[in-house]
Write a structure and sequence with these properties.
The protein is α/β, with parallel strands linked by helices. The chain is 35% helix and 24% strand. It contains nine helices and eight strands. An eight-stranded mixed β-sheet has the order 1-7-8-6-5-2-4-3.
Length: 238
């Protein structure tokens, strides 16, 4: 990993257009959209289904029923798109990227992020609490790898979908706000761990009990700065 940072700092560092219209979709989209909306010149913020639109010009708006596959936005109306954990959204990452390419102006920027499953399973639970899931349920690793491809596969898909100058990096992405033990358990229970939906109700209950038992030794101060390894690709619209 090159560094640890929340998504807001990663987006800033990778220089997506800061003053244009921006669409954010996928895992953590709500947290990132709120953080972006607090920065820089004021802009309107609209919510859809798993997608958010930050508007700085052009009078755009996003309807509450909008999805990544159907935003109803005009072609060439955005300067930036962020897709987090969107490989399976809108019928696959290819479909998501083609929609991003349609929405972006020429030269507009896209950022695509996916969990690095290889780095997750190579680490210990003391580094990533999420590792407990794959230790307890190793059968989920293949499923998660299919859902979250590595950086090379991401970059290939980005270029194939109409973008150029694709650049792949790795980041250790931190949640902006630390969790208490109880808060982290609630985060996991609500699906905060990728791969969680591969468990049945009984297995989820057992996993939560195991996590609750482990937290005092893994995070003894009742303060968890949750983080995960991610592959991130940036590119521009041809």
């Amino acid at each position: 990993m090159t560094e640890t940072a929340p998504w807001i700092e990663i987006v800033d560092q990778l220089a997506l257009p800061a003053r244009g219209n921006l669409l954010v979709a996928g895992q953590g989209a709500e947290e990132l959209a709120v953080a972006l909306n607090r920065r820089g010149p004021a802009r309107e913020l609209f919510w859809g289904q798993g997608v958010a639109l930050l508007v700085r010009h052009g009078g755009l708006r996003l309807e509450p029923q909008a999805t990544l596959a159907n935003t109803s936005l005009a072609a060439g109306s955005l300067e930036g798109v962020v897709l987090l954990g969107a490989w399976e959204d809108a019928g696959g990452l290819g479909a998501s990227l083609r929609e991003a390419a349609r929405l972006l102006v020429t030269g507009g920027g896209v950022l695509v992020g996916e969990l690095s499953v290889a780095d997750l399973v190579a680490a210990s639970p003391r580094r990533y609490l999420h590792r407990l899931l794959t230790l307890r349920h190793p059968q989920l690793v293949d499923r998660m790898s299919l859902r979250h491809p590595d950086g090379a596969a991401l970059a290939t898909e980005v270029v194939r979908s109409g973008f150029e100058a694709a650049h792949s990096q790795q980041f250790e992405v931190a949640r902006a706000t630390p969790y208490s033990w109880a808060g982290y358990l609630e985060f996991v229970e609500k699906g905060g761990w990728p791969g969680w939906d591969g468990l049945g109700p009984e297995a989820k209950a057992e996993m939560l009990t195991e996590l609750e038992t482990a937290l005092p030794s893994l995070a003894p101060l009742d303060r968890i700065q949750a983080s995960e390894p991610w592959n991130v690709v940036t590119a521009s619209r041809r």
